[in-house]
Amino acid sequence: MKIGRVGLVSCPLGVIYKSKSTNSRVYAKVKADTPLAVTNEEDPNWLGVYMVNGATGWIARSSVRLIEYDLVAKKSDVDRATAMSRSATGSRELPESAIIRTAMKYAGVPYVYGGTSPVSGMDCSAFVQAVFREYGVKLPRTARQQAQVGASVPYDQLQPGDRLYFACKNPYPDHCGIYAGNGYFIHCAASRRGIAIDSLASDFYARTLVAVRRS
């Protein structure tokens, strides 16, 4: 089943409202190129987007550029988002598509080095930690520590929901994100000043990717 589409804010500052009115409460103000999980496209003037608190916010359609990347999930994925499947050994089957949807709802959260708050800001590892916490997976605080947790995955066997670790400025993992499928990943990046979607095919990220882990 289709959950929605990804849209990128196409104006310098997009405003997300509580309802389809500029007079309603402002949920968030998001910068250009911020990815949004668009879940409602029925109105010709407004788009419904998934918010961090699970609510639907509304942004002017003219402020968003929809891209050809769908958020999809089987019904079983959606069911498992609230009822995790655990084996007798305690291993988990994580709902991959639901993880990406959860990651997308942090759109608009600013990047703050050392930050852990979805309101005031967070860094890359706090973002990954927060997303997986919603599925009962406890990850360490830093990217370097997280890269030691979970099963190692060959680069040619990536699946949505896999955790990616990069050595951007150091010889050890110092940045991380979540693979979203189709060559894209979502992360909280200082260079993007918040949550962003980027391509693994870019020279920088292809060159600095050092570990993939599956929970």
Helical amount among residues, as a percent range? 10-25%
Mean pLDDT: 85
Percent of sequence in beta strands:
35-45%
SSE topology string = EEEEEEEHEEHEEHHEEEEEHE
Note the overall shape.
globular
Biggest sheet descriptor = 7 strands, antiparallel
Low-pLDDT residue intervals, each spanning 5 or more residues: 73-93
Strand order of the largest sheet: 3-2-6-5-4-1-7
Structural class: alpha+beta
* Radius of gyration, whole Å: 17 Å
Number of helices: 5
The total strand number stands at 17
* Ends distance: 24 Å
Describe this structure in words.
The chain is an alpha+beta fold. Helices cover 17% and strands 39% of the residues. It has helices at residues 75-82, 96-104, 124-133, 143-146, 203-208, and strands spanning 2-9, 13-17, 26-31, 35-40, 46-50, 56-60, 64-72, 85-86, 92-93, 116-117, 121-122, 151-152, 163-166, 175-181, 184-189, 194-199, 209-214. It has a 7-stranded antiparallel β-sheet, covered by helices on one side. A 6-stranded antiparallel β-sheet has the order 12-17-13-14-15-16. A hairpin with a 5-residue loop joins β4 and β5 (46-50). α1 (75-82) packs across α2 (96-104).
